[in-house]
Amino acid sequence: MKVLVVGNGGREHAIAFKLLQSSKVEQVFCAPGNGGTATLARCQNLALGVNDFTAIGQFAQDNNIDLIVIGPEIPLALGITDYLQNRGIKVFGPSRAGAQIEASKAWAKALMADGGIPTAKAAVFTDAAAARGYVEAGSVPIVIKADGLAAGKGVIVASTVEEAHRAINSIFQGQFGSAGKFVLVEECLIGQEVSVIALTDGISIRPLLPAQDHKRIGDGDTGDNTGGMGAYAPAPLITPELMAKIEVEVLQKAIATLRDRNIDYRGVLYAGLMVSPKGEFKVLEFNCRFGDPETQAILPLLETPLEDLLLACVEKRLGEMPAIAWKSGAACCVVASANGYPGEYSKGEAISGITSAEGLTDTYIFQAGTKQLEGQIVTDGGRVLGVTGIGSNFVQAIDCAYAAINCIHFQGMYYRRDIGYRVKK
Ligand code: AMP
Ligand code: GLY
Questions:
Q1: 65, 99, 120, 320: most buried, per Cβ within 10 A?
Q2: Of the ligands numbered here, which is closest to the C-alpha atom of 276?
C-alpha cells in the first residue's frame, strides 16, 4: 500500500514513521515533509505545498496512492478532503463542513449547545462595544477568543477588564485577519487540560490514549503560549471510568450532532478538555486533526497497524475493528525549539547528534522545523524536534527522552526541563 501524508511537522514525521513500521505499507510520500521524513527509509518528500490540492490530487492519481492522510487543519478547513474525494481518492480527514468544528469556534459552540455537550459558557459578538459591555458586566479572569484559525494564538486569558478590552479591540482591528470577524467571550475554567484524540468513521468512535501537553514556553507552565513544548501519554488523570464518560458525553454526542447536520465526519475528532479538581470536564475546543506534539507521544505506544485504523475510518468500518492494542507503559515527548520561539527566531542552524540520540534504546527523534541542506539537517522552524522516550513507567520514559535530547545540539536550542512533572513519580 502507498500512503501520502500531507504536512511538515513533527506530527507528520510520527505518522509517516508509524505507517512505515507495517510491512503492508511499501512506500510513504510526504507533501512537503521535513528533514526527518526525508531520511526515513521507503519515504520520499514531495515539493508540494499542503494547500496545493491540484498537485496533490494529480500526484495521487498518477502514482496510485491508496490513502492520503491530512495532518494540519488549514487544508482541511479549505476543503482538501472534498476535493480529493471527488477525484475518487481515499482521504483520512473530515470534509470542509466537518472541519468547521475547529475552524470556527462560534460554530463549534453552537454544535455543543445543540448536542448538550459540556463546555464553558460563552457569548459570540460581531462588534467590539457589545463585547466590551459583556466583559464589564461579568468578572475576571475571562477568556477572549478570535473565532477562526489563528495558529493557536487567537485565545487570550485576560486577568483584568483592561486586558480583555485590549484583546477584543485588537481582534476586531484585524490582528488575526478574517479569523477575527467574530469574538467569543468565554467563562474562564480552571483545572488541568487534557487532549482526548479519537478516530471516527462518522458512526463509531475509538479514542486513542489520553495525553496532556505543556502549552507554555517556560518551566512550571509559565510564559507565552506555544503550539506545545512537550506531551505525555497515557494521562493518568483520565481514568478508564472518566474516559468512558467523555466518550458518551462528548465524543458520541459530537458525532451524533454532526450527523444531524448531514456531516459524515471521518478522521480525527480531538477534544481539548478542562478537567476540574473534582473530575468534572468541559470542552475547551475541538480540533479536526491529530495533536502536535501529543501524536509524537501517543503513536510510539500504538500496536495496531495505523493504516488499518485510518482505512477503517475512511471505509466506514471502524466498528468492525478489534479494540486498539497498545504497548503497556508510558511515553513522553520533549520539544526542542529555536531560541526566541514563539516569537522571532533564526533558521538554518546545523543540528548535530540526531544519529547518536536515535541509537539509544526506547527513543524516537521526530523532526519538525528541519530540512536537509547539502546532506546536513538544519533548523527551519520554531519547534525543531520532538524527542520521545518510552518506558514501563513515566520516570523511565521521561529519563529516556531527556537522555536523547542531551545528545542533540544546535545553536540557540531551547527545551523545557520539566516535561511530565505532574506524572514523574
Ligand atoms: P483553544 O484554542 O480554545 O484550546 O485555547 C487555547 C488555550 O487557551 C487552551 O489550551 C487553554 O490553555 C486556554 N483556554 C481556552 N479556553 C479557555 C477557558 N474557557 N478557560 C481557561 N483557559 C482557556
Ligand atoms: N498540542 C495542541 C494542538 O495540537 O492543538
A1: 99
A2: 1
